[in-house]
Structures are given as C-alpha cells and as structure tokens.
Write a structure and sequence with these properties.
With 229 residues, the protein is α/β, with parallel strands linked by helices. It has helices at residues 13-22, 53-66, 80-88, 101-128, 156-167, 175-182, 189-210, and strands spanning 2-8, 27-31, 42-47, 70-75, 93-95, 129-132, 135-138, 143-146, 150-153, 173-174, 217-220, 224-227. The strands form three sheets. The chain has a five-stranded parallel β-sheet with strand order 2-1-3-4-5, sandwiched between helices. It has a four-stranded antiparallel β-sheet with strand order 6-7-8-9. It has a three-stranded antiparallel β-sheet with strand order 10-12-11. The longest helix has 28 residues, at 101-128.
C-alpha cells in the first residue's frame, strides 16, 4: 500500500474528487493537514490558481528538506514558467492537461516501485553490513572487507568478536564483555584472558597475511580492545 498525501491550499474539492476516482486501489489518498509529520510515498500539491505559486514553492522547499517523498504538482492552470520553477525546486513532475491521466499514473507508479526497490536495497545493505573507515563487516559472508577489495574470511568466533567491536566502534570492549558475548561460560579470569587474547591474535594474523591492514584492532592495556578507526 502506498501512502499518497495531497496538499490542496484552496480546498477546491473538484480536483480531490477527480484524484479519488482514478488512483489505483493500492494507493491510500490522504489529505495533508498543516504541520503534519506523517510519512508519505508520494505528495501531490494541487495548484488551483496562479496566485498559489508562492505557497507551492514554500511547500516544495519544506518537503524537500524534511522528507524523501516523491513530489508532483497537480496543476489546473497552464503556465510554463510556473512549471519550470517547480521542477527547478525539486518537483519530480508537473501534471497538466497536456499529460493524459493514464500516462501520469504509469509514470507515478513506476517511480513509486523504483523508490520501494531502492529503499529495500538500502535497508538490506544496512542489515548485511557494518562499516567504519576503510573496513566493512559483511554479515552475510561473515567476513571483513578492507579497502573495498581485500576480503578476510572469519570463523564463527572471530566473527562474533569483530561484530562486537563494530557495534562499539571507537569504544573499548573489555575482556569480560567480549568473553560473555562469545563464550558465555564460567572460567577463571586467566583462562578468559588467554582465550580472548588468542582469538584476537588469530584475527590480527589474518589481517596481516591477507591485507595491508596491520593495526585494525588496538589493545587497550589491562582493559580490552578497540576497533582502530
């Protein structure tokens, strides 16, 4: 379901009624009230007269600052100068009588589909990857990519350690914190220190052998480790 917000300054219901009759069933048409903070996939600003150009320009600028919605001007007037102004301010298009309704619907629907695909890809990338300067933790591959070209494969325990360091980027992860996340077993302090130190040693060796990165993980004396960003 797509949320389609409509701004109608004069409240002329004729254009609103026309919109309601033509939109696809999966579009939810919603009148936008002043100071609304709701999210919309597409915002339609209705231009009922030439006098509204100032209000419409102000609305366009505000929407571009605050939202990532597609923006179309639905104009009942035929004014080429206004149309160029709206496009320069960032409108995705201007619907006039010269653009048939069927054609406009296809253009808008294709744009909404592309926007949804891009949004899904960005969300998926966020879930699959954690990033710091020059280093990417790929959750799907359980690996670390350095400088976009060199990939270091990690064991399950190594991945857990790197994931914890990424989640606390720029902060020291203590030996105890790391041990509890990776092993969750009760052992002596000396044994915990040994297992963590050994694990970090192997990760560092992989970085040295497979990439040019030599100081990815920095030791904080007597405390733990920090991702060196």
């Amino acid at each position: 379901m797509y949320r389609i917000g409509v701004v109608n300054f004069e409240g002329n219901t004729s254009e609103w009624e026309q919109l309601q009759t033509i939109i696809p069933s999966e579009w939810a048409l919603i009148p936008i009230v002043e100071d609304s903070k709701d999210r919309y996939d597409l915002i339609i600003i209705v231009e009922n007269s030439l006098k509204q150009v100032g209000e419409i320009c102000g609305q366009l600028i505000q929407v571009k600052k605050e939202a990532d919605s597609l923006i179309w001007i639905w104009s009942v007037v035929q004014n080429e100068m206004n149309r160029m102004v709206y496009l320069k301010l960032g409108a995705d298009g201007v619907k006039t009588d010269s653009l048939k309704l069927e054609e406009w619907l296809l253009i808008a629907e294709n744009a909404l589909k592309r926007k949804k695909v891009i949004s899904n890809l960005q969300t998926e990338q966020t879930v699959q990857e954690s990033r710091c300067e020059g280093i990417v933790l790929n959750h799907r591959n359980r690996s670390v990519v350095v400088n976009e070209t060199e990939e270091v494969q990690l064991t399950n325990l190594e991945y857990k350690a790197m994931d914890l360091l990424f989640k606390n980027m720029g902060k020291t992860v203590t030996y105890e914190e790391m041990y509890q996340v990776i092993w969750e077993e009760e052992e002596s302090t000396e044994r915990k220190f040994y297992r963590i130190s050994n694990l970090i040693f192997h990760i560092r060796q992989k970085f040295i052998q497979e990439t040019s990165a030599t100081e990815t993980i920095r030791t904080v004396r007597s405390k733990g480790y920090v991702l060196n960003v």
